[in-house]
């Protein structure tokens, strides 16, 4: 086991991958950063693995607290089969957190990971101290919107190329596109022990999960008032994947939520403004 002093010297590029078995799954994870009583667990997006987190974001947060990245069932370096619904994904996240012996965590959920994080909080409010919901929404509910026309077709293509990421995650402006290309370059900083791309089976299951959340069966919208934890809701000011209006609606229905919108940005706002996002997250978690 790596001691805390050694953990604080590691980065997203250098931390070795660890494994823990629970619930019939071998979960792959990476834990590092400054020692903190409550670690921050990252719940990843649709088709994302541990290696799709921006190292600038993760390393920035890790300067002040312990961070934990993980691949859920059937994703990346973890074993098992990916569930086709968000509540079951939340159960796996809870299983993973408990397998590490953690009694309480802060959660950050990006995109689909934000949907999972909402269900984790609703299922186990005792487990979650603070919650960050980035580029996500509450599911089907009054006045919520689906992703813009053309988005679903691009996000579900068998292989996403750089141009697809730039379309989905960044604004068509010169400034946003340039920041998007910088983000894609940062994703290559880690050279070894990288997670493989998600499989076609996982993409199919995750797509079904997104549809179930957006169409109503698994929506968190009716239960948002039950989330009593402090919540930071953040998004770009023109998210075409998880429409920005949904972030506003979500922040209005969660009793102790605050909302931050980032200019000239979309779904990938946290990768476009990594240093600013780190400042906001650190301030929120330290309150």
Automatic annotation (TrEMBL):
Protein's recorded name: AB hydrolase-1 domain-containing protein
Listed InterPro entries: AB_hydrolase (IPR050471), AB_hydrolase_1 (IPR000073), AB_hydrolase_fold (IPR029058)
Organism: Paenibacillus durus (Paenibacillus azotofixans)
Pfam families: Abhydrolase_1
SUPFAM superfamilies given in the database record: alpha/beta-Hydrolases
Residue span, AB hydrolase-1 domain: 39-271
């Amino acid at each position: 086991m790596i001691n805390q002093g050694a953990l604080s010297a590691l980065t997203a590029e250098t931390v070795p991958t660890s494994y823990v078995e629970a619930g019939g799954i071998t979960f792959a994870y990476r834990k590092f950063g400054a020692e903190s009583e409550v670690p921050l667990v990252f719940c990843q997006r649709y088709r994302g693995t541990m290696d799709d987190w921006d190292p600038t974001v993760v390393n920035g947060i890790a300067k002040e607290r312990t961070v934990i990245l993980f691949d859920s069932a059937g994703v990346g370096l973890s074993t098992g089969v990916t569930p086709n619904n968000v509540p079951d994904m939340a159960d796996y996240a809870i299983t993973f957190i408990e397998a590490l012996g953690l009694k309480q965590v802060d959660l950050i959920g990006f995109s689909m990971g934000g949907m999972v994080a909402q269900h984790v909080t609703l299922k186990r409010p005792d487990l979650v101290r603070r919650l960050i919901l980035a580029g996500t929404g509450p599911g089907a509910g009054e006045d919520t919107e689906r992703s813009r026309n053309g988005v679903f077709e691009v996000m579900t293509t068998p292989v996403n190329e750089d141009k697809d990421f730039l379309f989905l995650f960044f604004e068509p402006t010169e400034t946003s596109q340039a920041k998007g290309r910088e983000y894609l370059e940062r994703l290559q900083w880690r050279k070894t022990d990288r997670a493989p791309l998600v499989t076609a089976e996982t993409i199919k299951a995750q797509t079904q999960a997104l549809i179930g959340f957006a169409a109503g069966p698994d929506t968190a919208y009716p239960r948002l008032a039950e989330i009593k934890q402090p919540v930071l809701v953040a998004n770009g000011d023109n998210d075409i994947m998880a429409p920005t209006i949904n972030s506003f609606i979500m922040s209005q229905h969660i009793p102790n939520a605050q909302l931050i919108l980032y200019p000239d940005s979309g779904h990938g706002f946290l990768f476009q403004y990594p240093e600013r996002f780190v400042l906001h997250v650190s301030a929120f978690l330290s309150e």
